[in-house]
Amino acid sequence: MKVAIELTPEQDELVRVCVESGRYENAEAVVATALRVFAAVEVERAGFERSIIEASEEAERDGTFTIDEVMEEVEAIIAEAERERAA
Predict the structure, then answer these.
(1) Helix (H, G, I), strand (E, B) or coil at 4
(2) Are 16 and 24 in contact (CB under 8 A)?
(3) pTM of this prediction?
(4) Residue 19 CB partners (closer than 8 Å, separation 6+)
(5) Which of the 8 DSSP states describes residue 13?
(6) What is the rounded CA–CA span in Å between residue 87 and residue 83?
(7) CA angle 46, 10, 14 (to 5 degrees)
């Protein structure tokens, strides 16, 4: 599929510098790389969004904890580990 896009002056300069540096053969190669990176970012974003939805569903189902409750449990776990190490 052929697509024509208009670049901002900054984007055009970036493409030009990438090609002139020899890292890319042409503008199409720069755009192809940019799209691969964008696709990877989108996969990460979708995974993060899924984890937020799952956490929200879990909170609805199982309830939530305050930071004080979490810190109290963390401190108890650390204290127990220190007692076991000292024994």
Answers:
(1) coil
(2) no
(3) 0.63
(4) 25, 26, 27, 29, 30
(5) H
(6) 6
(7) 75
